[in-house]
Amino acid sequence: YYYQPHLVTKVKDASGATVKTISPLLQKQTISSSISADIRSYMQASVEQGTSMTSKVQGYSSGGKTGTAEKFPRGNGKYVVSFIGFAPVDD
């Protein structure tokens, strides 16, 4: 799902009472639920038994994706690496 970006979920007065609650505003569903489940499963497998294994945290279900790009000029053995992860897998 794609939600309208927002920074504030509640506005409170000086005593701490909630004056206003701001709910996320759904814009559109970007992919199907079944495709989303497949992607989460693949990313979890990457953490459990693939290239993201070193990111695994005991007690948490997590998923992730690694990336590698060779820096210019090519052939100099220098790379840029990246990792994106999320937890829990089911949420």
Automatic annotation (TrEMBL):
GO terms for molecular function: penicillin binding. InterPro entries: Beta-lactam/transpept, Beta-lactam/transpept-like, PCN-bd_Tpept. Residues 2-91 form the Penicillin-binding protein transpeptidase domain. Pfam families: Transpeptidase (PF00905). It comes from the Bacteria. The keyword Transport does not apply. Coiled coil: none annotated. GO terms for cellular component: plasma membrane. It is found in: Membrane. Keywords: Cell cycle, Cell division, Membrane. One of its GO terms (biological process) is cell division. PANTHER family: PEPTIDOGLYCAN D,D-TRANSPEPTIDASE (PTHR30627), PEPTIDOGLYCAN D,D-TRANSPEPTIDASE FTSI (PTHR30627:SF1). This is Cell division protein FtsI. It comes from Xanthomonas citri pv. citri. The lineage of its organism: Bacteria, Pseudomonadati, Pseudomonadota, Gammaproteobacteria, Lysobacterales.
